Amino acid sequence: MYFFLRNFSILEIGFTTTVIPKALANLALGKKPISLSGCLIQTFLYFMLGTTEFLLLAVMSFDRYVATCKPLHYVAIMNSQVCSLLVITAWIGGAVLVLSPSVVYFQMPFCGSNIINHFSCDSRPMIELKCGNTKVLECMNFISAVFTLLGSLAITAVSYINIITAVVKIPSVAGRQKAFPTCASYLTVVSMTYGSCIFMYLTPTQTNRLDLSKVVCILNTVVSPLLNPFIYSLRNTQFQEALRQSI
């Protein structure tokens, strides 16, 4: 679990760093310029790290499923080699899923306005600044989003359905009361993250929805990363004990 949390923490730091510092600097200075190269780098890193994060969330949910439903086989199933392979697969998968649309995206020229209707270089407002037919690029982005979001969501949903089923069967009331808040808090953050991304990237493009999309994007880039340390660390018994000992 801690091996996955380390990688998840690195992803979260990288994911938020690609957007939040620049957005805060724009708010503080009152100026909102960004170079073309900086915008393209931000776009690639944002989606690559975000895609990797969803894949890692699916891996972590599978890890919790094995720990809860197959505790006697956990050490044999989730050994160090398997854990490393799953994390490497998530990182490579995130890069591969974003690379193909990025190549097409970077090759298409910009024309007209250079003003992005967003607080970051998100894909939809950036596509509106592209010249020519963008249908192929939109289709590639949609396929990548479907595979990433719905594929990882299916694994997470199946894992936690089995976990909740196992928790319900716990004979001890205290055991159920201890397990359910942890599952509920985790599922709240996961639902918020998946819900915001599905709204932004798997619904039809409408210009009048861009303002609403910016508001929803805050859930994914600010609110969820802010809650994750509380969900995965501060609610952890071992972490609380280590914190008390250090104080």
Helix content: over 70%
Q: What would you call the shape?
A: elongated
* Portion in beta strands: under 5%
- Mean pLDDT across the residues is 82
The stretches of 5 or more residues where confidence is low (pLDDT under 50) are: none
Secondary-structure arrangement, i.e. CATH architecture? Up-down Bundle
What is the helix tally?
10
Number of domains: 1
N-to-C CA distance:
24 Å
- What's the CATH class, please? Mainly Alpha
CATH topology, by name, is Rhopdopsin 7-helix transmembrane proteins
What kind of sheet is the major sheet?
none
Quantity of strands, as a count? 0
Q: What order do the helices and strands follow?
A: HHHHHHHHHH
Q: Mind telling me the C-alpha Rg?
A: 20 Å
Q: What is the SS-derived class?
A: mainly alpha
CATH superfamily: Rhodopsin 7-helix transmembrane proteins
Subcellular location: Cell membrane
GO molecular function: G protein-coupled receptor activity; olfactory receptor activity
Protein name: OLF49 protein
Membrane topology: Multi-pass membrane protein
Short description:
InterPro entries: GPCR_Rhodpsn, GPCR_Rhodpsn_7TM, Olfact_rcpt, Olfact_rcpt_6C-like. With 247 residues, this protein is mainly α.
Task: Explain this structure.
The model has no long low-confidence stretch (mean pLDDT 82). The chain is built from 10 helices and no strands. The longest helix has 34 residues. The protein has one domain: Rhopdopsin 7-helix transmembrane proteins, CATH 1.20.1070.10. Helix 1 runs antiparallel to helix 3, helix 3 packs parallel to helix 7 and helix 7 runs antiparallel to helix 8. The protein is elongated and about 65 Å long. 79% of the residues lie in helices and 0% in strands. With 247 residues, the protein is mainly alpha-helical.
